[in-house]
Amino acid sequence: MAERLAFEARRKRVPPGFDPTAPRPPEFPEQAGFVDGCSAQEAAAKLLLSLHESGALRALTGLAGKLGPVTDIVLTEANTEPGRNLIGSLLFAGQILAKMPAGELATAAKGLERGLVRARQAARRPPPGSVALARLMMQEDTRRAIHALLLLLNSLGGAMGAKE
User: Fold this and answer.
1) φ and ψ at residue 55, rounded to 5 degrees
2) % of the chain exceeding 90 in pLDDT
3) Helices (H) and strands (E) in the chain, counts
4) For the whole model, what pTM was predicted?
5) 3-state SS string for 55-110
6) pLDDT at position 87, please?
């Protein structure tokens, strides 16, 4: 018997020490107690009860009930010219963002968010005087951002002027 198992192991390239007659452990050991000693019907009843008690069953039922009307609205809107433009823009933005490392994207998003908040606050106040603007222009962060925007505009202009 051992010779036969060894032959089968070599033939099937089974790792040494593997015993096909040994009992197999459950695939999910942390869930073994949930199903052991239960019939499929009892396991399904326990699952349904836990979904009900957690509120997940109500959420899933509500989602399933609204899936048809929501899908109809989304597909109707996606079939319009603005809908197609939006989908195309999202795909294009996704391609650009996929090329950017996650850390840089998070840093840029944080800076953009902070800048938008400050811009909204500044828009509610009277405009600053020339001296205040000059002082702002002298700050390193302002010069860095202007330089980045100029490079972006330069690349954009080059792409717009390029022959297809």
Assistant:
1) 90, -5
2) 17
3) 8, 0
4) 0.41
5) CHHHHHHHHHHHHHHHHHHHHHHHCCHHHHHHHHHHHHHHHHHHHCCHHHHHHHHH
6) 87
